[in-house]
Amino acid sequence: MGEYARGRAREKVARLAGRGLDLVTFWHAATEALAPAVPFYLTPCFYTLDPASLLVTSHYHQGLPAIPHAWLAHEYYGEDVNKLADVARSPRGVATLHEATGGDVGRSARYHTAMEPFGADQEALVGLRTRSGEVWGVLALYRARGQPQFDADELALLRELSTPLAEGARRALLIGEATDPEHQEAPGLIVLRDDWGVESLTPGVERWLEELPDGEWQTRGRLPPSVLAVAGRALRSAEHPDVPGEVAFARVLARHGRWMVLHGATLLAGGTRRVAVIIEPAHPARIAPLLMAAYGLTERERDVTRLVLQGEATTDIASRLAVSTQTVQQHLKSVFEKTGVRSRRELVGKVFFAHYEPRVRDNEGRALAGRPLRGGPYA
């Protein structure tokens, strides 16, 4: 793999991340950008994860419209190396099955059930993390028997590409939810022309505009300065199509005391330049209230459960929550009783199959129907 191919892959993926593409289109375009720099067997597997729990919310693999239930059961109940969440949260953020098994890939149960039957002999996983460190997905690449191992340069490039891939996926999910809202707190979307005129608004976005400071949209049709600032940063990237797109972002304290998050993405179609600004409340992760409602967990039990889902050890949970390890164990005992499980693994599996597998299946249907994909658990 030459430096020219690596550089072109960086530029293309960075541009794609700022374009506001729907998720399936983004994955297709990213596949084409990646192929010359990191050759792979068949097609990549793209997963989105809920950053609050690191549980899978969607799976996209050309030629495999539905991920087998057995694969998901193995991921959340089985013993193996290179689990998606483990790689995604690891300091390095990238791993190969060859490394994890000391060169003996046959030690992995997943190799025998999900790779070998399809002719794959090697696997590289990379966690997709934004600049702020949130994990939004995992990319899996495969190679057939007899093909070269993934080398250090290729793995380094995958680490570099993980951030724009994460940001592109995050924006795709946001735009999809704004255009096809699922709940009252769904993001809102404003599309501006390059002359700053408003081309379109999604239903309900006026509510978020009213919460932002210094805006007078309903009375005078004036957008808040924060919206214009994010739009300007994103629109500048469209002036130089050969330069990687700028991913615009802002966190703004709203009039009623809560934080709002703004994302900007350029929309290039038919030679015209437009920009989408997505506005969403910086609300807690959706898994938190779901756990409290479904299982009657207390706030602290919910916090412990969320960290268990992410794969944190007892000592790490104690440090994060500033409590003793004994207190964590007491909370875990209560959580196990309330959820009807006997171990951490059973807890993770129960939460996934009750609240996340339905989301995965819903997204599979959405992908086939050309509808926006969703993030987060299925309410």
Major sheet summary line: 5 strands, antiparallel
Which CATH architecture of the largest domain?
2-Layer Sandwich
Q: Unreliable segments (pLDDT under 50, ≥5 consecutive)?
A: 241-245
**Order of H and E elements:** HHEEHHEHHEEHEEHHHEEEHHHHH
Q: Which terms summarize this structure?
A:
379 residues; alpha+beta; Beta-Lactamase; 3 domains; five-stranded antiparallel sheet; 15 helices; globular
Topology:
Elements (H helix, E strand, L loop, with lengths): L2 H15 L5 H12 L10 E5 L6 E5 L8 H9 L6 H6 L4 E3 H4 L8 H7 L4 E10 L5 E10 L7 H28 L8 E6 L4 E4 L3 H7 L5 H4 L4 H12 L11 E6 L5 E11 L2 E10 L5 H9 L3 H11 L4 H8 L3 H15 L4 H26 L10
Antiparallel strand pairs: 1-2, 1-5, 3-4, 4-5, 6-7, 6-10, 8-9, 9-10
Helix pairs in contact: 1-2, 1-7, 2-7, 3-15, 11-12, 12-14, 13-14
Q: What do these coordinates show?
A:
The chain contains 15 helices and ten strands. It is α+β, with helices and mostly antiparallel strands and 379 residues long. It has three domains: 3-178, GAF domain (Beta-Lactamase), CATH 3.30.450.40; 186-281, PAS domain (Beta-Lactamase, 2-Layer Sandwich), CATH 3.30.450; 287-339, Winged helix-like DNA-binding domain superfamily/Winged helix DNA-binding domain (Arc Repressor Mutant, subunit A). The chain has a five-stranded antiparallel sheet. It has a five-stranded antiparallel sheet with strand order 7-6-10-9-8, with helices on both faces. The radius of gyration is 21 Å and the shape is globular. 45% of the residues are buried. Residues 241-245 have low confidence and may be disordered.
